[in-house]
Structure formats: structure tokens, C-alpha cells
Amino acid sequence: MNSSETLIIIPARGGSKRLPRKNVKPLAGKPLICWTIEAAIKANLDAKIIVTSDDDEILGLADTYKSKGVYKRKRPDNLATDTASTVDAIIDVIKSEVTLGNNPQTIILLQPTSPLRNEDDIRNAFLLYNDTEAHNYRNTVISVCEVEHPTAWVGRVDESMSFTGTELLNKRSQDYEKEYRLNGAVYVASVEHIFKEKSLFSQKLKASVMPRTRSIDIDEEVDFKVCEGLLSG
């Protein structure tokens, strides 16, 4: 595939309610989004890397990687709100590429809130997409990691503080079958599927497994501090 057929899209809004300005917040010496941009470059895929944002500071950071093949896309105002979806931002990028005369077929989505995801994780997901029956518009590759504890131990707490909905079978955690969760680090999907379903997710999914140590998604300050400790250690 050439660069006009595969797009690596990095979506980064300027606003964040739980952790203000998190995409530009310095993490172990550089802005959070830079960890994802650099991982995309190091993956060395034949792909065009595009940062899509409503924020001038974020777009300015993308510009510093221009010599390494990174492009920027300023989002329209209607895609810069809290209610705008990631898929809408992806479709906007695809349409802009078509307008430029390119013919994107595959999208690799990298959320900047997964700074520990590395180039191998990106390549592994892309290879799975291309090397199996996942290379079909009905199938999306998602990155996952093993859950920390069995989901049988997960339940609900009601107003009376009753803990319900669990399957407490007096088993050790290692006695349960391995389970995995979506970690939000890498998604690979076809342009055809995204336009047809207006969704990244297909009914049939392929899992690209990542270690838990690289699966932290930064949502709050505590996540940021954990990542900083791991990167600085």
C-alpha cells in the first residue's frame, strides 16, 4: 500500500474536562501527543500520518514533525464540540484526502491518550489486519489487553451498599479463563466500513493483544502520573 491508501489518524481536541489541556501537557519531557506521533513515525508503515485537531497549539506541534511526513488537519467548528464523535473527525479527514486526489482504503486510528503504545503495537495490529480474513470491510482490528481481575468479580453497589451481580466461586484469579478488554490504543478499519456503518466497530472484531504495561489510557491525573513513572523509571 502507498501513503494515499493508508492513513494513520491521530485525533486530538484542545478541550478536556477531566484533565484540562491533556494532549499538550508535558509527559516525561514532551507533550502527551508527541509520544503517539513519534510512535506512528517509528512504525515505519507506508502510510500518511495526519493529526486532526481544533486547537492551534496541537496543530503547531504536528507541524514540528512535518519533515518526517506528518500532516495536520484543522477541524471544522462543528467537529470541535464535546458532542462531535471521533468517527465524524475521521470521515472529515478521509473526505479531505479524497479532495486532494488520494484514495484512502485503510485507517489506523491512534488515540494520543495511550502514550505507552509503541511502534511494535501499531505494526502488529496493521499486520493482523492485512494478513488474515480481517482484511475485509466487515472486520476491524482492535488492540486489547488482559484484564487485571476476572470480570466474575465485577458487580454493582446499590443505595443500601449491597454488592451484587458477581460470581464468587471461591476460585483464585489464576483459575479463571483469561479475559481481555479494549484498551483504546490502536484501531485498524477499512474506509468502506467506516463510511457504510459510520462506526469503527464491526460485528466481527480481531484482537491485537498488547501487554497491560503499555495499555494505560490517560483520562485523569492519576493515569498521567502512572505513565510518567513508567516512562521515567
Residue-averaged pLDDT: 91
Major sheet: 7 strands, mixed
Please state the CA-atom Rg, rounded to the nearest Å.
19 Å
Strand order of the largest sheet: 5-4-1-6-10-7-11
Envelope shape? globular
Query: Based on DSSP secondary structure assignment, what is the total number of beta strands?
Result: 11
The oligomeric state of the chains shown is: single chain
Question: How large is the share of residues in beta strands?
Answer: 15-25%
> What is the overall number of helices?
6
**Uncertain segments:** none
Helical content band? 25-40%
Structure classification: alpha/beta
Give the terminus-to-terminus CA distance. 38 Å
- What string, H for helix and E for strand, traces the elements in order? EEEHEHEHEHEEEEHEH
